[in-house]
């Protein structure tokens, strides 16, 4: 009997200590009201502990014509640059949407819900065909690639062997260029400038590549003293060679990482 009483007393002491620890840690609320109360701020109606956010119509990663229409409206408001009119809801579109939401004093969700779209539609006009698909620049009566119509672009035509520095459809500079040989062909397609190197030297070929603007792996637009000396009698190892040193110097200072590069045949 004595042993039973001692065991019960010890069990009570352990339980009491455990309860005290839980109360101290905040796991179990005490009867005393807290001196300070933490308030949770949520943008919309609350169900239990979870905020209910409005349904997204278009959000990060969305693609398609409707996204392009939203982007065109943001361009109208000068919240988005034309270069990002591309059918893809990415970081720049998200930032522009947040700026618009802030201007209308609505929650900065970063995605387009029905309320945001209604306010955006009220603040803009229905995008025209020309706003959605700006016409390609025309040089000497010939259209450039349609991808060169918006934003800052190094528009490179293999057929005419010209590089054109284009801003929102306006040609700012034109340079003679040459390309890789058959076995080291310059890749065609749409790219972006990944990085720049003013005094670059090729580790693979141990040759200087001044004012290099890399757009596809080791392929870059850069000055070539060989091109300046030999002209089209030679070829590159895949890069886009420029022979005008003054122009490539000026171009290098204008181009930023992330600007578009389009290599095509007209």
TrEMBL record:
GO terms for molecular function: peptidoglycan L,D-transpeptidase activity; transferase activity. GO terms for biological process: cell wall organization; peptidoglycan-protein cross-linking; regulation of cell shape. SUPFAM superfamilies: L,D-transpeptidase catalytic domain-like, PGBD-like. PROSITE patterns: LD_TPASE. Keywords: Cell shape, Cell wall biogenesis/degradation, Peptidoglycan synthesis, Signal, Transferase. GO terms for cellular component: extracellular region. Residues 1-20 form the signal peptide. InterPro entries: LD-transpeptidase, LD_TPept_cat_dom, Peptidoglycan-bd-like, PGBD-like_sf, PGBDSf, Transpep_catalytic_dom. The active site is at 222 (proton donor/acceptor), 239 (nucleophile). Residues 152-264 form the L,D-TPase catalytic domain. The keyword Signal applies. The keyword ATP-binding does not apply. Coiled coil: none annotated. Pathway: Cell wall biogenesis; peptidoglycan biosynthesis. PANTHER family: EXPORTED PROTEIN (PTHR30582:SF33), L,D-TRANSPEPTIDASE (PTHR30582). This is Putative peptidoglycan binding protein. It comes from Kribbella steppae.
């Amino acid at each position: 009997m004595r042993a039973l009483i001692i065991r019960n007393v010890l069990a009570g002491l352990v339980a009491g200590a455990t309860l005290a620890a839980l109360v101290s840690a905040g796991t179990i609320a005490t009867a005393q009201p807290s001196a300070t109360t933490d308030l949770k701020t949520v943008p919309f109606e609350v169900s239990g502990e979870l905020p209910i956010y409005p349904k997204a119509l278009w959000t990060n990663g969305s693609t398609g014509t409707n996204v392009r229409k939203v982007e065109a409206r943001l361009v109208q408001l000068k919240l988005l640059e034309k270069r990002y009119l591309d059918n893809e809801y990415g970081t720049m579109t998200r930032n522009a949407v947040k700026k618009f939401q802030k201007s209308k004093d609505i929650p900065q969700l970063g995605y387009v819900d029905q309320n945001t779209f209604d306010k955006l539609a009220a603040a803009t006009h229905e995008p025209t065909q020309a706003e959605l698909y700006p016409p390609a620049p025309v040089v000497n009566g010939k259209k450039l690639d349609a991808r060169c119509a918006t934003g800052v672009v190094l528009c490179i035509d293999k057929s005419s062997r010209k590089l054109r520095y284009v801003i929102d459809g306006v040609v700012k500079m034109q340079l003679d260029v040459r390309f890789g040989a058959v076995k080291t062909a310059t890749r065609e397609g749409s790219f972006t400038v990944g990085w720049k190197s003013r005094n670059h030297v090729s580790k693979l070929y141990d040759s200087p590549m001044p004012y290099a603007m890399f757009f596809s792996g080791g392929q870059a637009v850069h000055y070539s003293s060989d091109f300046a000396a030999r002209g089209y009698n030679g070829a590159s190892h895949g890069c886009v060679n420029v022979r005008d040193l003054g122009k490539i110097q000026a171009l290098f200072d204008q181009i930023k990482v992330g600007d578009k590069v389009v290599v095509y045949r007209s």
